[in-house]
Amino acid sequence: MPEILKSFTFDDLPMKPPITGRPKVSDDLQQTIALLSGWDGVTRRLVRVSPTGAIRVGSARAVGIINVVANTDAYTANCTGCAASEVMIRAFPDNTGRVFLNIGTAAALNTGYPLFTGEWVSLSVNDMSVLYLYIEKDTDKVAVIFTE
Q1: 146 and 62 in contact (C-beta within 8 Å)?
Q2: Is the distance from CB of 94 to CB of 117 less than 8 angstroms?
Q3: 46 and 77: one domain?
Q4: pLDDT recorded at residue 144
Q5: Is residue 5 predicted with pLDDT exceeding 90?
Q6: Contact 94/63 with Cβ under 8 angstroms?
Q7: Residue 142 and residue 72 in one domain
Q8: What pTM does this model have?
Q9: Residues 88-121: tens digit of each pLDDT
Q10: In Å, what is the CA distance from 31 to each residue of 1, 35, 48, 70, 95?
Q11: CATH number of the structural domain spanning residue 91
Q12: How many domains is the chain partitioned into structurally?
C-alpha cells in the first residue's frame, strides 16, 4: 500500500484526527480524495455542494474588498501575493477619469481594458498579482471585491 509522502491540507476541511506521519493510501482513501477535490491548474480546491447535494457552480465566498484611491494623476497599482479565485473591479460612480485594467503586464493610458465611470468587470484568476490598474485622475477610486 503506498504512503503519502507530503500531505496536503484544505483550510476549510478540518481533519479529525489531524494527519500525522506518513499515512497509508488505500483505494477507498484515494477515491474519497478524488471526489472531494478538483485541480484548477495551479492548486487543489474542494468541490462544494449545496445543502441538497447539488454541485455549486456559482461564485466562491467573498473574502475581501479593497478600495484603491489614486493620489496622483496617472496612478498605477498592482497587488502582490493576493490569492483569489474571482475578482470584480469597479470604477467609482463619481470618478472624473478612466481606469484601465490589464492582465499580466502593466496598464497605462489606452493600454488595457477601459472602465468608465461606474463600469465594472468580473474575472476569474488564481492570484490578483496578474492584474494591473492605471487610474487616470488624482483622487479617482476603484473598488476590488475578491473571493477565496
Answers
A1: yes
A2: yes
A3: no
A4: 95
A5: no
A6: no
A7: yes
A8: 0.65
A9: 999 999 999 999 999 999 999 999 999 999 999 9
A10: 14, 6, 16, 50, 52
A11: 2.60.120
A12: 2
CA atoms within 13 A on the CB side of 38: 8
> What Å distances lie between residue 72 and 64, 76, 140, 144, CA to CA?
25, 9, 9, 19
For residue 70, list its beta bridge partners. Answer: none
Distances from the Cα of 91 to the Cαs of 2, 71, 110, 145, in angstroms? 53, 15, 16, 12
- Whose cell is 476603484? That residue is 142
Note whether 44 and 109 are same-domain residues: no
Task: Answer whether 56's CB lies under 8 Å from 48's CB.
Answer: yes
Place of cell 478540518: 14
Query: Which sign does the torsion angle of CA 25, 30, 32, 38 carry?
Result: positive
Q: In which domain, by residue range, is 35 found? A: 1-58
